[in-house]
Amino acid sequence: MNRLLENLSPSRLIRRFKEKDESYTIKFQMPGLSKDDVRITVEDGMLFIRGEHKDEEEGSDDDEFWSAATYGYYSTSLMLPEDVKVEEIKAEMKDGVLHVVIPKDETKKKQIKEVHVASC
């Protein structure tokens, strides 16, 4: 779990990260972006989330011509822990919030062995 959180500061994590027995869930606020504006990739154990939105508008009133353009860009990356099923990562965009579900692979669960300490 700690590897998943390395790139996020605590102030950015509030109400955004949840760990369950079977998965990790992360929410990202991405107002103004649609699912078509977002690209999610996994490469070398890293989850990359990028969003880009361009909007151009032109019009005319009487003898005046006007144009307006807006642009927004979002990019973040997370180092994935070793116990995830990369091929089963899912994402959904709803009301400007991206929900990413990262399933855990139970076969890769960490093995913890207690070591006995002997007295001398």
UniProtKB/TrEMBL annotation:
Database matches in CDD domains: ACD_sHsps-like
Keyword terms, alphabetized: Stress response
Pfam families assigned to the protein according to its UniProt record, in alphabetical order: HSP20
Database matches in InterPro entries: A-crystallin/Hsp20_dom, HSP20-like_chaperone, HSP21-like
PROSITE patterns: SHSP
Gene Ontology BP terms: response to heat
Protein biosynthesis listed as a keyword: no
Gene3D superfamilies from the UniProt entry: 2.60.40.790
Domain SHSP stretches: 3-120
Coiled-coil portions: none
PANTHER family: 26.5 KDA HEAT SHOCK PROTEIN, MITOCHONDRIAL (PTHR46733:SF3)
Family: Belongs to the small heat shock protein (HSP20) family.
Protein name: Small heat shock protein HSP20
